[in-house]
Amino acid sequence: MITLRVKLFALIAGVTIFSTTGVTAVALWRDLQRSQELLAREGTALASSVAPAAARWVGPEGAEPGGRQALGVLVARLVESSSVARAWVVDRFGKVLACADPSGRGCPEGAPTVFTPAQTPLETVTRLVEPEGIVAGAPVQHDGVLVGAVRVEFEHEQVLGSAQQLAWTASALAAIWIFLGHVLAVVLLRTITRPLTDVGTAAEALARDEAGLQLAVPQERELAEVVRAFNHMSLRLAERRTENERLIGSLEERVAQKTRDVLRADRLATLGGIAAGFAHELGNSLNVIRGFTAVALRELPQDHPNRSDLEAVRRETRRAAGLLERFLVFARSRDAVTAPQSIEPVLREAVEVVGPAAAQARVTTSVEVDPGLPEVNADADMLRQAFLNLCVNAVQAMEGGGALRVSARRAGGEVLVEFRDSGPGISAEVRPHVFEPFYTTKASGTGLGLAIVRQAAETHGGAVEVESPPGGGALFRMRLPALALAPAREAGAPA
Length: 495
Prior knowledge:
Structural class: alpha+beta
Strand content: 15-25%
Strand order of the largest sheet: 8-10-11-13-12
CATH superfamily of one domain: PAS domain
Order of helices and strands: HEEHEEHEEHHHHEHHEEHEEHEE
Distance between the termini: 80 Å
Helix content: 55-70%
């Protein structure tokens, strides 16, 4: 039984024979080209041997007196003493001054050139088909000036000789081997590919989701390995299909769960809107209570026994109104009305507002803004509220006095606004929750101040983070995207 390896060997042998024949034919063509080049060089040498003598009879304006006869003798001797078919001399205008052509065809005119262009492979092939000879020449110079040229031509038969017949023989041999090689390749490839057709058909069946398809293993060892690999792949695909179906079922279940979560979140959002409406109405009622309480306190004498009760009512309604107001600020989350602007005046205003409270708590404040700080696309009111919340938190954290340092600088494509206090710091357990709504560690806090800060930062496309080093103190850092095209305020501002 002929194995696939033997078939491939036969195919490679046929291709090798074909390639060798082709290389032989190419070598013959290249040898013919070299022969033509040598003949062209010989013609140039012959023309160059006559050019010095011709230079005495050719001037810038053409032939000198008696020059045509002398030049005729020179080219005639050149034809008689060499194998050239004809020789002639032209002046610098291309006019023929003397011609020696035993065939009587005459000599062509043409302007002389100093250098003869090299023969190309296309010209070499053309000479095998068309009866065209090789023309070579040498320049004729008079006092260093080109005044003409001596040209010689070899006949077509002289150029080719027996090379043409040899080339045609090689070409015919190459054509025969090309035909035989193609026939052999078709036969062998058909024999080789027939067993592979079944594999292709089975692969198409796999594409139609017929997983687990198995083929009979052929006797040829090489093809048997291919079929075994296909059968193994088919089994793996069947296993993968089962696994994918399981994963798709799990994914569908998770999608259904997420859908339920989204619906629940939508209901919660609706309830949040309703709660915001209730809070607004409750705020109005609390304002009415505060108003009537204030009127009653003005009318009661200082020693009235009910005065302390009314003051407690006023105090608690004020605290409840503040809580509702913060809740409404957080719940409404209005759209930011942004505009390109500098962050420095907004930051300094927030620190200035908290100044009296900081002075009462014996807290010193300082603001440092890098020169050339780029502008940001910001809602000034929203950022002012966020900065004020951070300042108030820092002052409240330093009950026994301290220092609040506020700074703004550029870091890459962002503007960093930092609030650093010298208070007791924030524990590692509390830090992950400080920005959550209604989370607070203060006895009278609402837990919405830092949530509003995070909401403002995210509305502006930024973020807020907190650090608390082991030595005490807390650092709140807000990152805001800087305007890429904002010019620096000073020429020496850092980029």
